[in-house]
C-alpha cells in the first residue's frame, strides 16, 4: 500500500472523486476534511503522510494556515485550488508546498505530480536526516577537540550557522559561573565578534540587574519559543535588554531553547535574526532532537577547570580582528560583499550546492544571478563537469527545440549536420537556464517534459536520449505574476522552484557598495596598469546615494570608466550616470548643461529610445532589432551588457 493521504477539500463531490481516483491508484485515503479544524483532528487521529490541500475552505479557514503545522510534522502537501491569482500564489509559495494543481485537473496530472512530490519529499527527508547527523557529530566533535576552551567555543557559531541562521547567538549559562554568557554577532561569512561575560550588556548600555533578570528569564523558560514579527516586537515592550539588543543589532526575530546540564543546571541558546520570520518549528525541532549533543557539548566545555575565557584580552586586538573583513570569500569564488542580505544568499548557496536539487534564482538584472549559478555549480560534486549556460531570451523562436535538444542531419531546412543540444552538452554537469521567464509557452511544455523525465529526442529523431543534468534557472521577472497572467506554466514553475534564491537589488544592500567599489578599482587598475589607488570618502557617499538601477553590473562598468578617466591616484569625484532621472536631464537641457556621456551611455540611450518607439518589441518586422540593423540575439546581449532595464523591452 502506498502513502496514507488526507484530503482537505470543502466541496464534497470533488473530494470524493479524488478519493476514488487515489484509491484506484493504490493510495490509502484516511479521511476528508472540509475545514482546517477538521483537518487538525484527522491528522491527530490518522497520522497521514500526505495531504492534498484546498486553499479556500469551510468557515473561512484557509489551507495556507494549516501548512506550517504540516511542515513542522514533516507531512508533505500539495495544493489543489481553482484560484491562481497572484496574492494566493505568493502566500501558497511562502509555505513551501511540494506542488500546486489548478482545478479542474486531469487524473494523469495528479498522479504525475504526486509521484514527483513523493520522490522529492523522500529525498528531502533523507537529506534532512543526514544533515542532522552531521550537526550532531560536529557538536560532539567540538567538545573533544584539543586546545583551549575559548578556541573551541569560538567554533560553535560557524557550526550552528549552517543549520540555524542567525545574526546574534547568545549562550546563557547558569549565572553563578564566572563565564556565564557568550554572544556571537555575525560580521561576515564565517566571521563573528565574540562577547563574553557581560560585554554584550556593556555595549548595549544594559544595567547589571536588568541583564541578570533577562538571563534568568531564558534559564527559567519552559522548553523553546519562537518570536517572529509581532511576537518579537511584543517582547521588546517589557524587556529593556531585548530592546537595547534590538537597537544595537537591528534584529527582527528570535528563537530560544532551554537545555539542561548533568547537574540539573539550565543553560539557554538564544538565536536572533535581522530577517523577518526567520525561525520555524523545523529549526526548533532540529534543536530539540539535537539536545543530547548540545547538552553533552556544553557539559564538556563547562566541566573545564578554567573559566572559559580566562585571560584578559586585548580589546584593540579584538576590535581590529573584527574589522579585518576580507573582500572576497574564497569559498564563494568571486562573490564580494558582507551585507546581511548577501550573507543569507551565501548561506543558501552553501546549503543547496552539494545536492542535485533544482534552483531558481531571482533578482533584478545585474544583481549577480549568473555569478551565483556558477558558484553553485563549482561547489557541487559536478564542479569539474560542464556548466552549460543558455540565455533563453536570445534563443531564436524557431530554433529553441534544436538548440536545447539538438537535431539530426536533414531534420529541417538548414540542418546540414547533426547537432548536439545544450542538454546533451551538459550531461553529468549543470545547465543554467538564464532568463527562463522569456521562454515562449510552447517551448515551456517541451522543457517541462525533459525536466520531469530527463529524457528527450533530438529534432528529427525518435530515439530517446537520457541525461543526468542539474538544472539552475534564473529570471528577473516576477514568475508568480507571469503564471497568474498566463505567460508561464504553473507546473513548470513548481518544477523549477524547488530551491528559490532571491538576490536583493544593490540599493537594498548599500553596505556592499564600498567593498565592491574598492574591489573593482583594484581589478581595473591592475588590468589597465593605471595606478588608481582607491575611492575618497566623498565619492563613496556619492555612490551610496545613487539608486543603481543596473545593480552590480552598472557599478562595475562605472568604476571601469572612472579608472580610465582618472589614470592615477584617488578617485575623488564620480560622474554618475545622467539617466538617473528624466527630471535631471530636463533641468540640464533647460540650463544648457549638456551632460558629458560615455559612448556606452549614448548607445544605451539610443537603444532605449528605439525600444520605446517599438513599444519594447525586439524581434519581427518593425521591431527594434530590425531598425537598429542587428540580429535580435545581438540586441538582447547589448541590452544585457549595457544594463538596460527589462521594462523597456517587451520580448
Ligand atoms: N557579489 C558580487 N561580487 C562581485 N561581482 C559581482 C557580484 N555580483 C555580481 N557581480 C558582477 O556583476 C556583473 C553582473 O552579474 P551577473 O551577470 O551575474 O548578473 P545577472 O543578475 O545574471 O544579470 P542579468 O539578469 O542581466 O543576466 C558580473 O560582471 C558579475 O561578475
From TrEMBL:
UniProt GO molecular function: ATP binding; sequence-specific DNA binding
Pfam families tied to this protein: AAA_lid_14, HTH_8, Response_reg, Sigma54_activat
Residues annotated as domain Sigma-54 factor interaction: 335-564
Superkingdom per UniProt: Bacteria
PROSITE patterns reported in the protein's UniProt record: RESPONSE_REGULATORY, SIGMA54_INTERACT_1, SIGMA54_INTERACT_2, SIGMA54_INTERACT_3, SIGMA54_INTERACT_4
Modification sites for 4-aspartylphosphate: 54
PANTHER family for this protein: C4-DICARBOXYLATE TRANSPORT TRANSCRIPTIONAL REGULATORY PROTEIN DCTD, TRANSCRIPTIONAL REGULATORY PROTEIN
Nucleotide-binding keyword on record: yes
Protein name (database record): Response regulator
Coiled coil ranges: none
GO biological process: phosphorelay signal transduction system; regulation of DNA-templated transcription
CDD domains: AAA (cd00009), REC_DC-like (cd17534)
Keyword annotations of the record: ATP-binding, DNA-binding, Nucleotide-binding, Phosphoprotein, Transcription, Transcription regulation
Residues in Response regulatory domain copies: 4-118
Amino acid at each position: 500500500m502506498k502513502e496514507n493521504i488526507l484530503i482537505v477539500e470543502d466541496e464534497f463531490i470533488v473530494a470524493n472523486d479524488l478519493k476514488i481516483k487515489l484509491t484506484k491508484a493504490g493510495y490509502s485515503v484516511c479521511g476528508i476534511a472540509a475545514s482546517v479544524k477538521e483537518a487538525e483532528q484527522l491528522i491527530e487521529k490518522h497520522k497521514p503522510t500526505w495531504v492534498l490541500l484546498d486553499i479556500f475552505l469551510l468557515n473561512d479557514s484557509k489551507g495556507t494556515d494549516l501548512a506550517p503545522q504540516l511542515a513542522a510534522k514533516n507531512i508533505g502537501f500539495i495544493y489543489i485550488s481553482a484560484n491562481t491569482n497572484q496574492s494566493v500564489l505568493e502566500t501558497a509559495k511562502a509555505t513551501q508546498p511540494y506542488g500546486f494543481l489548478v482545478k479542474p485537473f486531469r487524473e494523469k496530472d495528479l498522479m504525475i505530480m504526486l509521484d514527483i512530490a513523493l520522490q522529492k519529499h523522500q529525498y528531502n527527508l533523507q537529506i534532512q536526516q543526514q544533515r542532522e547527523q552531521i550537526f550532531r557529530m560536529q557538536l560532539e566533535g567540538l567538545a573533544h577537540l584539543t586546545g583551549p576552551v575559548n578556541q573551541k567555543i569560538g567554533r560553535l557559531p560557524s557550526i550552528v550557522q549552517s543549520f540555524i541562521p542567525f545574526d546574534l547567538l547568545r549562550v546563557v549559562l547558569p549565572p553563578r559561573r564566572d563565564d556565564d554568557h557568550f554572544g556571537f554577532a555575525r560580521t561576515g561569512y564565517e566571521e563573528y565578534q565574540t562577547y563574553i561575560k557581560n560585554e554584550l550588556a556593556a555595549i548595549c548600555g544594559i544595567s547589571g540587574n536588568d541583564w541578570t533578570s533577562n538571563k534568568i528569564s531564558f534559564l527559567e523558560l519552559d522548553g523553546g519559543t519562537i518570536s517572529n514579527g509581532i511576537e518579537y516586537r511584543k517582547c521588546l515592550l517589557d524587556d529593556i535588554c531585548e530592546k537595547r539588543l534590538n537597537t544595537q543589532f537591528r534584529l527582527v526575530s528570535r528563537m530560544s531553547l532551554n537545555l539542561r546540564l548533568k547537574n540539573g543546571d539550565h543553560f539557554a541558546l538564544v538565536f536572533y535574526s535581522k530577517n523577518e520570520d526567520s525561525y520555524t518549528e523545523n529549526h526548533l525541532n532540529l534543536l530539540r532532537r539535537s539536545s543530547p549533543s548540545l547538552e553533552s557539548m556544553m557539559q564538556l566545555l563547562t566541566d573545564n577547570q578554567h573559566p572559559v575565557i580566562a585571560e584578559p584580552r586585548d580589546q584593540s586586538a579584538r576590535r581590529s580582528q573584527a574589522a579585518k573583513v576580507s573582500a572576497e570569500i574564497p569559498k564563494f569564488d568571486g562573490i564580494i560583499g558582507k551585507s546581511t542580505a548577501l550573507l543569507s544568499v551565501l548561506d543558501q548557496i552553501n546549503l543547496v550546492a552539494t545536492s542535485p536539487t533544482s534552483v531558481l534564482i531571482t533578482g533584478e538584472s545585474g544583481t549577480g544571478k549568473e555569478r551565483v549559478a556558477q558558484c553553485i555549480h563549482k561547489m557541487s560534486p559536478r564542479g569539474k563537469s560542464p556548466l552549460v549556460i543558455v540565455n533563453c531570451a536570445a534563443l531564436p523562436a524557431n530554433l529553441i527545440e534544436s538548440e536545447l535538444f539538438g537535431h539530426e542531419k536533414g531534420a529541417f531546412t538548414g540542418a546540414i549536420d547533426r547537432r548536439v543540444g545544450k542538454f546533451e552538452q551538459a550531461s553529468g554537469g549543470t545547465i543554467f537556464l538564464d532568463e527562463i521567464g522569456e521562454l515562449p509557452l510552447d517551448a515551456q511544455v517541451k522543457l517541462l517534459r525533459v525536466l520531469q523525465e530527463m529524457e528527450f529526442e533530438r529534432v528529427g529523431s525518435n530515439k530517446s536520449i537520457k541525461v543526468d543534468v542539474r538544472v539552475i534557472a534564473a529570471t528577473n521577472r516576477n514568475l508568480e505574476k507571469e503564471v497568474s497572467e498566463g505567460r508561464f506554466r504553473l507546473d513548470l514553475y513548481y518544477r523549477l522552484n524547488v530551491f528559490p534564491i532571491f538576490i536583493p537589488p544593490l540599493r537594498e544592500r548599500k553596505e556592499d557598495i564600498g567593498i565592491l567599489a574598492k574591489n573593482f578599482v583594484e581589478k581595473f587598475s591592475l588590468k589597465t596598469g593605471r595606478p588608481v589607488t582607491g575611492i575618497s570618502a566623498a565619492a563613496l557617499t556619492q555612490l551610496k546615494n545613487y539608486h543603481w538601477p543596473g545593480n552590480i553590473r552598472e557599478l562595475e562598468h562605472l568604476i571601469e570608466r572612472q579608472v580610465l578617466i582618472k589614470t592615477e591616484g584617488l578617485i575623488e569625484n564620480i560622474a554618475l550616470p545622467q539617466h538617473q532621472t528624466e527630471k535631471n536631464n530636463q533641468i540640464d537641457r533647460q540650463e544648457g548643461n549638456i551632460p558629458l556621456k560615455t559612448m556606452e551611455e549614448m548607445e544605451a540611450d539610443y537603444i532605449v529610445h528605439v525600444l520605446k518607439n517599438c513599444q519594447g518589441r525586439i524581434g519581427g518586422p518593425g521591431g527594434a532589432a530590425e531598425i537598429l540593423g542587428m540580429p535580435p540575439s545581438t540586441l538582447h546581449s547589448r541590452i544585457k551588457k549595457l544594463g538596460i532595464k527589462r521594462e523597456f523591452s517587451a520580448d
